Amino acid sequence: MSENKNPAVKVLKLEKIDLASKNPEKLSMFYEEVFGIKFEKIVHFDLAHYSGNLGGIELFLCPNEPAGVSQNAEGIQQFHIEIDGDLSTLIQSAKNLNCEVNEDVQFDPNRKQCCICDPDGNPWIISEK
Description:
This protein has one domain (about 15-65, about 80-129): Roll (2,3-Dihydroxybiphenyl 1,2-Dioxygenase, domain 1). Helices cover about 20% and strands about 35% of the residues. It is built from three helices and eight strands, in the order E-H-E-E-E-H-E-H-E-E-E. The protein has helices spanning about 25-35, 65, 85-95, and strands at about 15-20, 40-45, 45-55, 55-65, 80-85, 100, 115, 125-129. A four-stranded mixed beta sheet has the order 1-4-3-2. A hairpin with a 2-residue loop joins strand 2 and strand 3 (about 45-55). Helix 1 (about 25-35) packs antiparallel against helix 3 (about 85-95). It is globular.
């Protein structure tokens, strides 16, 4: 980890992840099935949004239209999370939903890892504790 170059700013914690989606309901079903997240459906301006808890961080799923997104942004975007449990169970859940799974990912040689893409193609690097 690198040293904070700006002593006036200290990041305390990651509070929320917003994911714009072409189908937030389908995305919420993926996260519920694979990660066990329970979502609350919230309606804003006649559009369904979903709010859940991912390891103490709010995961908020919203439609592309009001977010000003026509498709997923180009470039690298990855989310890394650590699980306390059996990675193979999580992998099987994702495969049952026909999601892309890459079991050949190895960012840390000391841990079992994989990459699972959600239905919108957002890659999640999952590591066993």
